[in-house]
């Protein structure tokens, strides 16, 4: 069993010491399910990247901005948001730690984007 509080504290300390201002750890990998802790110092940004078939972001500490095509969503500690099915990035507005939950395969279960394409 993993202790999220301890992981968050450890990786925020690591991020503060990292020249890029971030630290991440995949702590749960079960089939298509992935859970990772990502720590970022204030001002650190993850460039836009593709979304997995399904994902959510839970802010454990701090304040982040989830960015996408014309969308900016600010999240603070305790808030959870579905990650949109589009290219997206993240900016730490203050020292922050998030829990990323992602499903990397959805056999027989179309994503919202796939549903829209077949409608």
What is the percent of helical residues?
10-25%
Strand percentage lies at over 45%
CATH fold title? Jelly Rolls
Could you name the ranges where pLDDT drops below 50 across 5 or more consecutive residues? none
Q: Quick one: CATH class?
A: Mainly Beta
In brief:
The protein has 119 residues and is of the alpha+beta class. The chain has a single domain (4-118), classed as Jelly Rolls (Sandwich), CATH 2.60.120.
Q: How would you portray this structure in words?
A:
The longest helix has 14 residues, at 4-17. This protein has one domain (4-118): Jelly Rolls (Sandwich). The radius of gyration is 15 Å and the shape is globular. The chain has helices at residues 4-17, 112-118, and strands at residues 22-30, 33-40, 45-49, 54-61, 63-68, 71-76, 80-82, 88-92, 96-103. The chain contains 2 helices and 9 strands. A hairpin with a 2-residue loop joins β1 (22-30) and β2 (33-40). Helices cover 18% and strands 49% of the residues. With 119 residues, the protein is α+β, with helices and mostly antiparallel strands. The chain has a 5-stranded antiparallel β-sheet, with helices on one face. Strands 3-8-5-6 form a 4-stranded antiparallel β-sheet, with no helix packed on it. The model has no long low-confidence stretch (mean pLDDT 90).
């Amino acid at each position: 069993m993993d202790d999220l509080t301890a992981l968050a504290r450890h990786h925020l300390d690591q991020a503060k010491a990292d020249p890029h201002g971030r630290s991440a750890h995949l702590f749960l990998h079960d089939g298509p399910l992935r859970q990772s802790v990502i720590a970022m110092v204030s001002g650190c940004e993850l460039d836009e990247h593709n979304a997995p078939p399904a994902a959510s972001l839970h802010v454990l500490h701090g304040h982040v901005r989830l960015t996408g095509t014309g969308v900016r969503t600010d999240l603070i500690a305790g808030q959870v948001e579905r990650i949109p099915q589009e290219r997206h990035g993240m900016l730490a507005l203050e020292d922050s730690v998030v829990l990323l939950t992602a499903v990397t395969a959805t056999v027989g279960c179309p994503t919202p984007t796939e549903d829209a394409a077949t409608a």
